[in-house]
Amino acid sequence: MEKEGKLHNTLTYVMHHWRLYVFFLGPALLLTIIFKYLPMGGILIAFEKYSPFKGFFGSEWVGFEYFKQFLSSPDFMSYLINTLKLSVFGLLWGFPVPIILALLLNRIESSKIKQKIQLVLYMPNFISVIVLCGMVRILLSVTGPVNMMFNTTINFLTLPEAFRPIYIISGIWQGAGWASIMYTASLANASQELKEAAQIDGANIFQQIKAVEWPAIKDMVVIQFILQAGNIMSIGFEKAYALQTDLNLGASEIIATYVYKKGLLDGNYSYSTAVGLFNTVINLILLISVNKIVEKMNDGQGL
């Protein structure tokens, strides 16, 4: 009865002040509908032999023809495996780094030193992807600093086996510091009394982390893991395309770059939309599956 009373009072308040809610929420909802929901109508292109001159409703309906064409393509497994390898390895190598950084920063007692270190760690996040790729190309070129340091003449970006480490390590360097902000904020909720008590009892650093700091960031870690694992197939094409060369295509050609080339370069809009939609559906399935798995492993707590 108490909950029903609170709900009734809330609804009464909202109905009484509806103009205020429309004023503040109206523009945001309108922009969301225009830029997020209306473009979803473009999904129809995946099921049509789309012609820009005939439009959505005048183009010939072909059903799942383009999906079958992509799934039966001899390069399908190659693109899928390359995408999964970049995503899964990036998740396994990159996910723990922000957590470790946050735990290490939390051990620094001097606020001035901590702020300076955080500034250095956060700065790479503000470098654009294209600028980052340019830096990587310069560093790893035949005459670049890396080859000069080891007195070699290796063109790393022409080696398919070197593409994934380059892609993943540069991504960790760019984003780990910024991603640690959430964990650093969560660690602020850790009980200082418990930490001092653990220190008095003789607990080492790892025991303090396990007993005091880990419970403070556990929920945030679970949420971030679900979100990142659910986006395994969502690799932006910009970085992969900017680091791509003719000689490393065997490792660098992923679904996102394939969609870009087929859609914008070749003008095959229907086929590229079908491939992109396939990618999105796989992402949705992964997100739901990972959330269910984490719920079972985490006492029913998921996203």
Largest beta sheet: what is the strand line-up?
Answer: 1-2
Task: Let me know the number of strands.
Answer: 2
Residues in helices, as a percent range? over 70%
Shape, please? globular
What is the CA–CA distance across the termini? 29 Å
Detail the poorly predicted runs.
Answer: none
* Tally of DSSP helical segments: 16
Largest sheet: 2 strands, antiparallel
Overall structural class, as computed from helix and strand content, comes to mainly alpha
Radius of gyration: 25 Å
Mean pLDDT, as a whole number? 86
Order of helices and strands: HHEHEHHHHHHHHHHHHH
Strand content: under 5%
Describe the structure.
- With 303 residues, this protein is an all-alpha fold.
- Helices cover 72% and strands 1% of the residues.
- It contains 16 helices and two strands.
- It has helices at residues 2-16, 18-37, 55-58, 65-71, 76-94, 96-106, 111-122, 129-139, 145-150, 160-187, 192-200, 205-230, 237-242, 249-252, 255-265, 269-297, and strands at residues 48-49, 60-61.
- A two-stranded antiparallel ribbon has the order 1-2.
- α6 (96-106) crosses α10.
- The longest helix has 29 residues, at 269-297.
- The two termini are 29 Å apart.
In short:
This protein is mostly helical and 303 residues long. Helix content is 72%, strand content 1%.
Write the layout of secondary structure elements.
Elements: H1 2-16, H2 18-37, E1 48-49, H3 55-58, E2 60-61, H4 65-71, H5 76-94, H6 96-106, H7 111-122, H8 129-139, H9 145-150, H10 160-187, H11 192-200, H12 205-230, H13 237-242, H14 249-252, H15 255-265, H16 269-297
Helix pairs in contact: 4-16, 5-10, 6-10, 7-10, 10-12, 11-12, 12-16, 15-16
